Amino acid sequence: MARQDSEILWQLDQVGFGYGDQSVLRDLDLQLEKGHCYGVLGPNGSGKTTLLDLFCGLLVPGTGKLKLCGRSLSGWQPRQLARKVALVPQDFVVRFGFSVREVVEMGRHPHLGRFATLTEQDHELVDSVMQEMGVDTLADRPVTRLSGGEKQRVAVARALAQDPEVLLLDEATSNLDIYHSLSILGLIRRRVREQGLTVVAALHDLNLAGFFCDQLIFLKKGRLLYQGTVDEVLQADVISQVYGVDARVRKDVFSGCPQVSYRVPGLEVSRTRLSEFRVSG
Fold first, then answer.
1. Is the dihedral of CA 129, 132, 133, 135 positive or negative?
2. Among 75, 85, 104, 118, which residue is least crowded by beta carbons within 10 Å?
3. Domain range holding 183?
4. Which residue, among 141, 200, 208, has the nearest Cα to 180 in the 3D structure?
5. Which helix (H) or strand (E) holds 199?
6. For 158-185, what is the mean pLDDT?
7. CATH number of the structural domain spanning residue 109
8. Beta partners for 198?
9. Alpha-carbon gap, residue 206 to 238, rounded angstroms
10. What is the pLDDT of residues 255-274, one digit of tens each?
């Protein structure tokens, strides 16, 4: 059965992008629906970050058409787009000594009128997301004095303070430990389920993608290879084609999610043989 147009969020028709003569994305045909969590996966240089930058308007397609809610992305005003789409970048950098609270409050700026200040409701929302991300105890600390993981949690809090309909995550858990990665992704999943949030996340960890996502998008050398549900495309042959590794996929009883094991062909190293690869000294 065809999906209703009202359910379609992003529509990409033959979208391409490049820097000068170097093509990064080629002829992408994609359709993303509201209220789902999409994982974008692929080897380094496959175009994952570029795709997210196109989605949030930081880049403009060189070829093809990119529509958000049926309207060309070029037709959206920056403030309109910022109210709808929030990005958590891979490298979150703040070069000035803003406090954690001030940085999270910046997420409310797209919703404020000219010269307006934060309302009581804005402050309540900021307090809520800071507590949710576990950075409320850091509220008065300068962001420049935080660890990488703490900064990343602040970046997620700022994005959620925008109260977006779409959340873009570019390796957003790369600086986080296992506990905070699973906790934050679990909290975002709850927003998908309860509030209809749409998430597009560029990921490297296949097992994390299996835990977090509804659908997966595999890119390689700027081209779309596969798109489908986790069960449909998180398969050994797909992983082998995309990454050039041998893989096995099984359903993990403990987590209830797919579990991927992989190795590089010809480099099958067991624990008992590791000593052969150690440098003596």
1. positive
2. 75
3. 5-277
4. 208
5. strand 198-202
6. 92
7. 3.40.50.300
8. 166
9. 12
10. 888 999 988 887 765 555 55
Cβ 217 vs Cβ 227: under 8 Å: yes
Cα separation of 157 and 134, whole Å? Answer: 9
Instruction: Report residue 45 as tokens.
Output: 């240089």
Element containing residue 260 per DSSP (H, E): strand 258-263
**Neighbour tally for 44: CB within 10 Å:** 6
Altogether, the residues listed in the chain come to a count of 281
Count CB-CB contacts under 10 A for residue 125.
21
User: How far apart, in whole angstroms, are the C-alpha atoms of residue 124 and residue 134?
Assistant: 15
Q: How many separate domains does the chain show?
A: 1
Cβ atoms of 126 and 101 within 8 Å: the answer is: yes
User: For the purposes of burial, counting CB atoms within 10 Å of the CB of 25, is it exposed (0-12), middle (13-18) or buried (19 or more)?
Assistant: buried
Element (H, E) at 9: strand 8-19
Question: What confidence tens digit (pLDDT) does each residue in 30-51 have?
Answer: 999 999 999 999 999 999 999 9
Q: In this structure, are residues 43 and 218 in contact, taking their beta carbons and an 8 Å threshold?
A: no
Residues 131, 200, 196, 158, Cα dihedral to 10°: 30
Phi, psi of 246 (to 5 degrees): -80, 140
Q: Starting at the edge strand that comes first in sequence, how are the strands of the sheet with 198-202 ordered?
A: 85-88, 166-170, 198-202, 37-41, 215-220, 223-229
Q: Measure the CA–CA gap between 53 and 15, rounded to whole angstroms.
A: 13
With residue 24 as reference, give the H or E element that holds it. Answer: strand 22-33
| DSSP, residue by residue, 137-186 | GGTTSBGGGS-HHHHHHHHHHHHHHT--SEEEEESTTTTS-HHHHHHHHH
